[in-house]
Specification:
homodimer; mainly alpha; DNA-binding
Chain lengths: ~150, ~150
DNA sequence: ATGCGATTGTTTGCACGCAAACGATAAGAG
DNA sequence: CTCTTATCGTTTGCGTGCAAACAATCGCAT
């Protein structure tokens, strides 16, 4: 009978219970916190991109996009804006004319330590409503659905 | 000594451990799943907007934006596109000339049941890597950081 | 050697998402 | 009644985010 009720009255579907909606809300809050603490006015994607380059030293643009979880079209725009800010540079790969190698400029390199510091603050503030155990749990769960 | 090591070697900061990065990844996967099951090519925001209207019947555009967690500029675009698709309509509020009231068209109303069904499928598939308990846990944690 | 499929990067088009500035209207204080 | 403040909707500008189509180059199989 309950099943029939649900079918007739319409499925009990509450937006605020759906992961997709909650993910959007959580991302919004995180973005706001990020912006508050952002170094040099960097966006979250620009931030991730810089960190990835610093991890690997040199990368082709497409490979960088994969490392930072960005579309080819998206990573291009991000890299272009980082170039405009003078934080990254590119050179052509001698052994593969298709590739353009992306690397940090001295200014970009000088920023990395700061970025990590503010990144830690941002993560901390985003997770502030949770206990330590909950924080670990959330991270683990998010990782699982990725 | 460990603290000093960390300070000297640079803070141990792994992108894949940061909530912000994980939220982006999870959102990406959810978006892909959403698109696969999307009714009428609706986007997640359009979907949420339609559901909110169906919950309240009639709303001013700004109020609708608040209900669906969207910026004034964003909700305008979403509503415009839903109008183009013939799913919502607007009329002016007699008692307040600033307001424009948004409501579902018959076509929009006819879609709601379908939307809820596919919404349930999308949520289910997004959470598939988790056990029931983990799913409840994730939703609860996301709600807390919102 | 060539020729075909895969990869690299670019461009276009559409859809959020937010800040900031704007004109119109409403509502409350004096 | 009028002045100030708040709210409503619009527009612009910038930054993701993804699909699709494209030219250039690579690399491998034949």
């Amino acid at each position: 009978m309950e099943k029939a009720d649900i079918a007739e009255a319409g499925i009990a579907y509450r937006l605020e219970d759906q992961v997709g909606f909650l993910l959007r809300l959580a991302s919004q809050r995180h973005a706001a916190i990020f912006q508050k603490h952002a170094v040099e006015g960097l966006t979250p994607t620009q931030f991730s991109t810089l960190l990835r380059i610093s991890e690997v030293g040199q990368v082709s643009q497409n490979q960088l996009g994969r490392l930072a979880a960005m579309d080819v079209a998206t990573i291009k725009g991000v890299v272009d804006r980082l170039k405009d800010k003078g934080l990254v540079a590119s050179k052509s790969d001698a052994s593969d004319k298709r590739r353009s190698i992306i690397l940090l400029t001295p200014a970009g390199t000088a920023l990395i330590a700061d970025l990590k510091r503010s990144g830690a603050v941002i993560t901390h503030e985003t997770l502030a409503p949770l206990t330590r155990a909950e924080q670990r749990s959330l991270v683990a769960l998010l990782r699982k659905i990725t």
